[in-house]
Amino acid sequence: MHKTKDRNGVLIYVAFESKKFAIIGDSGINEKVPDNFWDGEKELLLSFLREGEIAKGLISVIEIAGNNLKSYFPYQTDDTNEQSNEISFGE
Questions:
Q1: Quick one: pLDDT at residue 3?
Q2: Domain enclosing residue 31, as ranges
């Protein structure tokens, strides 16, 4: 997460067994966004998790977070994907 040029990576962590989750932005994001920036995404994900709609919740949060971050980190024509989009299952 911390290896991007602009330090604008996002980690969405879901611990199923302990029933906890976190949405964490890297330092480049945290320097630009208000303190409550992730509150809406956290509430949205929590509502989906409570309903057992895990994939739907993750998709919604990723889309909303991406759209909200565009105003702070607009798309550049020379952008490259600096991080893997693979899901890690903690093995």
A1: 76
A2: 10-69
